[in-house]
UniProtKB/TrEMBL annotation:
Coiled-coil parts of chain: none
Highest taxon of source: Bacteria
Protein name: Secreted protein
Pfam families tied to this protein: SIMPL
Gene Ontology biological process terms, A to Z: DNA damage response
Classification via InterPro entries: 26kDa_periplasmic_antigen (IPR052022), SIMPL/DUF541 (IPR007497)
């Protein structure tokens, strides 16, 4: 068994986000399943056209879910069917959220819902490099302290394993159907990348 000490170091680096992602959904229920599907398709196309009209590229609008199901009703009530189409819209215009939401609501009406809103950083490579450096420095400091307490000298690194997570400080959930025509003020805040390293040092 290799002798030495294993420690975990962590490093966090924050930066302003440069990407905004919002998840919009279009829903409709009807007595006939084909009618529900047709109406959702019509209003989804209208919402996409409105977003494209606001300068959103076609490649930045992605279907994230499509559902068609029999809606729950009380026993004896007429059968209803619900269809939905969820879109993930990505933009680098962080101040354009209100304009995009207004355009989508205007096109899809009360069928539109805002399910999620999240800020992100498109390229995290530099942040990850800096976080790794901080994590390793912390791990080495811990290991040196433990080695001194045990009466050993710290040797070379024999293994390293890494985990990391990207944590947006601000994420939102809302519903455009509950706030028709209402301006929603949002703040990007800061996006944090965290790296944890488990490092094993041998004794000198």
């Amino acid at each position: 068994m290799d002798t030495g000490v294993s420690v975990v170091g962590s490093g966090q680096v924050g930066a302003a986000p440069d990407v905004l992602r919002m998840r919009l959904s279009v829903e409709h229920d009807a007595a006939d399943v084909s009618a529900a599907v047709a109406k959702v398709a019509e209003r989804t196309d209208a919402a996409i056209a409105a977003l494209r009209g606001q300068g959103v590229e076609a490649s930045a609008i992605e279907t994230s879910a499509v559902n068609v199901f029999r809606d729950y009703t009380e026993p004896g009530a007429p059968i209803r069917y619900r269809a939905s189409h969820a879109l993930t819209v990505t933009t680098k215009d962080l101040s354009g959220f209100g304009r995009l939401l207004t355009a989508a609501v205007g096109a899809a009406g009360n069928s539109l819902g805002l399910d999620n809103l999240q800020f992100d950083i498109e390229d995290k490579s530099e942040l990850l490099t800096r976080a790794r450096e901080l994590a390793f420095q912390q791990a080495r400091t811990k290991a040196a302290e433990l080695a001194a307490l045990a009466g050993y000298s710290l040797g070379s690194v024999s293994s390293i394993s890494e985990t990391y997570g990207a944590v947006p400080i601000r994420a939102f959930e809302a519903s455009a159907k509950r706030t028709p025509g209402m301006a929603i003020n949002i703040s990007p805040g800061e996006h944090t990348v965290e790296v944890s390293l488990e490092v094993h040092f041998s004794w000198a």
